[in-house]
Design brief:
The complex is a heterodimer.
Chain A lengths: L1 H28 L5 H18 L6 H12 L1 H10 L11 H30 L1 H24 L8 H34 L2
Helix pairs in contact in A: 1-2, 1-4, 1-7, 2-3, 2-7, 3-4, 5-6
Chain B lengths: L60 H5 L4 H4 L17 H14 L19 H5 L6 H10 L18 H15 L8 H7 L1 H7 L17 E5 L14 H9 L3 H11 L7 H14 L9 H16 L4 H5 L16 E5 L8 H23 L9 H29 L7 H14 L23 H23 L4 H26 L7 H6 L11
Antiparallel strand pairs in B: 1-2
Classes of the chains: A mainly alpha, B mainly alpha.
Keywords (chain A): Transcription, Transcription regulation
InterPro entries (chain A): IBH1-like, IBH1_N
Organism (chain A): Olea europaea subsp. europaea
Amino acid sequence: MKARTGYSTSLKQEFLKKWIKGIRIYSNFKKDMNILERKKAIKLSADLAIASTRNASTRWSRTLTANISKNETNKIFVEQIFSDSEVIKKEAPSRLMARSNRIASKKIWRRSHITQIKARKMGPYAVKARSIAKKLVKNRTKVLKSLVPGGENMDGISLIKETLDYIVSLRVQVDVMRRLASAAENSTRSL
Amino acid sequence: MDIAGKDATIEPEKGNENPVNYCATNMSSDWPLNDNYLPNTSVGMIPRGNSIMESSACSSAPMVDSFCPLIWDQPVSEQNRGYCHVNIQNNARTSDSFGPSAGTGWIPDTMLRDDMFLPTVQGMVPQSLPQLPSDSGFIERAARFSCFSGGNFGDMMNPFSVPEYLNSYSGMLASVQGQHEVFAGDGTKLNTTESSKEASLPLVYGTEGSPLKNEKMRECLPCSREEAQQGVCTLANDSDEAEFSSRGDQEELEGSPRESSGKGVESKKRKGTEQSTALNVNNRALKPSAKTAKDDAEIQNKDDLNPTTSKPSGKHGKKGLQWPDLPKEEYIRVRARRGQATNSHSLAERLRRERISERMKFLQDLVPGCSKITGKAVMLDEIINYVQSLQRQVEFLSMKLATVNPWLNFSIEGLLTKDIFQSRIGSSSSLGFPPDVTIPYPPPHQTPPGLIQPDLSSLANSSNALRRSINSPFTPAFRESTSQAPSMWEDELHNVVQMGISSSAHLSSQDLSGSLPPRHIKAEP
């Protein structure tokens, strides 16, 4: 437990520093932002910071950084924050697509074949229940893929792994932001 | 192919709870936990004679140790359940759970389900298997087993005629490696030369009269690197052959029968069969079934095509998810269970399902309130909700921060204060910033003076606020620490201002962590 706490603490520290640095840079870029711009700046820096804590080792962090860098104005911002080349371009999806197409057709055959076999073996109701469950899982997997950045082309196992990592990072992000928000609120309130 | 129809589904991780038989709660769900062999199921030993060794314990080393010698005396029952493939992660657990149960020496019949495999005590092996080489040699071989070339499925010998040797084998393997491995390929190799093996194998155990059904298959499946810690073997034929060649004397015993097997197996397969025959030493009655023979041929063909793609081809059956291109060197051997399809596809799918369920368990710990949920669909639902809620929280908090601080000049100081509050109040895992940390910063850059004003004012305000709040009556322990704090605030304030001013202020983690004085306040749960 100690180790885990220590790790998350250092993670929070790292995130905080990067985040604040990003905010500062952003605010130096644009003075007098309105509230929406500020919010966007805050969120952007937070996302960049939390993605950079992973050092591009996970797919979601790479995707997140890449998505942010797509915007030209953000790109400059990003590059300034990360002078070290952490920004890694997203993988070319073409390779995965080709593979998936090839495999998909085989899967279709196999699926139908297996359904027949199972129907013979297990009886119709069990097969139906199972297929319903599978549909459920599949739909939810699709939703999860849309939630986790970069999850589109991943298979189930890696998706769950990425989700794990993403959840941890999100928690760190939320925790630090909440603390900062309450601290800032306390300070302004007591003024 | 899954044993969803069977009621004994075992969850590998639940060993300590003595899950003799887990009924899959969601049989319809695509989460065949029963696929994992359950090392921790308290596999009892089968009493006497024929019946039984149906329950196949996981071949975990710990299980082997605690196993009762009775097992060996009993002939292997015909109902070979097959092995639960070794679940790598369950090693520790199986050992724990196995100890008590193994002591009895009786396998409850309920345990005799598909995925149970009796672990065999190492010590027992030599007793009942005179032909067996010394345990060490066997273990060594078992240790190499993880590197089976994939795809030689087919006629898996009846695992339960085999269970004895399998048990010992698995046990030894586990003992050697301290890790579960999925056995694959052994069976396939065995199957190829089953007929010849039977004649030549000097199996000691009395095999059951009923013909063994080759329902189990061992297949080498590529495993992800992280999961195949020790037992990962390279799929490459070379590696297999190397391993095989390094086998002990047992291989030689089998060597000739293997070689004489009628099938035109590739060299690697031959070597694989050698390995498997080593296992088969204990296994007396390996009878290839027509089905397994056919499967074996099929698998051989597959292997012929492309050994490295045997795994991907096996994954075709996956529903809607793709198997990643696993590194070719790493494979996990999977043993099919009784009543399951034994081709490579199903085994690969089973392995994949196990992996998914493993990871789901991690997620269960992470996502609050998911400890009781069993079932992929529900778990996924919870995960989705949680991720969505976290993302929404981030949005909300960023908006809040935007409103609270119009200048976007957040300071470390504010966070430190917050940290103090948290730590004093005893909340969990503080940020770790001590109140009296001195942050060395690079000299400030030249900035327009106008910019300094708002920073200073806000910082001054915040620091005053902080100081006031610090000096408020909190616990005395808090106060004694804060007595030092105010003197540091000025320094900090300057530092922070400098930090705020310089746009390129580089906050290095080393600075911060290095500057943490030993007396910092930190509440670590």
